[in-house]
Amino acid sequence: VIDATSLGWGTRVKGFIACFAIGCLCSFLGTCLLWVPKKRLTLFAVFYTLGNIASIWSTFFLMGPMKQLKRMFEPTRLIATTVMLLCLILTLCSAFWWRKEGLALLFCILQFFALAWYSISFIPYARDAVKKCISVCLS
């Protein structure tokens, strides 16, 4: 892991914490902006998306950017990564170009589920456990 970058471990942990904190702050700020009249869903979508992007970037500090990108596009994560990145882009398109707040909110929700599915792919057998829980709850 240390060979992946010229940054020391302490610096990389600080970078991870800073980037992750910025991501959490943006997501929290986006949620707070839901109460602002006019443009509330647009502001929420933009800040929520920026928060998710910053959170994803934070992991680049821990593993190194190239190793993280390779792991993102492994066959077991390919669909989750693709859906997550697509939803990030479509959320911003909905907010800025199409100006469809409902669509932006839908893409934020899909973004959340795709990022959660992607994140649990790093925990052994977590996806199987989630699938089993959902099947038990639905039956």
Automatic annotation (TrEMBL):
Q: Which residues form a coiled coil?
A: none
Query: What biological-process terms (Gene Ontology) are attached?
Result: protein transport; vesicle-mediated transport
Q: What are the GO cellular component annotations?
A: cytoplasm; endomembrane system; membrane
Pfam families assigned: Got1
Which InterPro entries does this entry report, sorted A to Z? Vesicle_transpt_Got1/SFT2, Vesicle_transpt_SFT2
Give the principal location in a single coarse category.
Answer: membrane
Segments passing through the bilayer: 16-36, 42-66, 78-98, 104-125
**Subcellular location(s) per record:** Membrane
What is its membrane topology? Multi-pass membrane protein
Q: Which UniProt keywords apply?
A: Membrane, Protein transport, Transmembrane, Transmembrane helix, Transport
Q: Which residues form the signal peptide?
A: none
Query: What's this protein's family per the entry?
Result: Belongs to the SFT2 family.
Function in brief = May be involved in fusion of retrograde transport vesicles derived from an endocytic compartment with the Golgi complex.
Kindly provide the name given to this protein in its UniProt entry: Vesicle transport protein
Tell me which species this is from. Answer: Eurystomus gularis
As recorded in Swiss-Prot or TrEMBL, the protein's gene is named Sft2d2
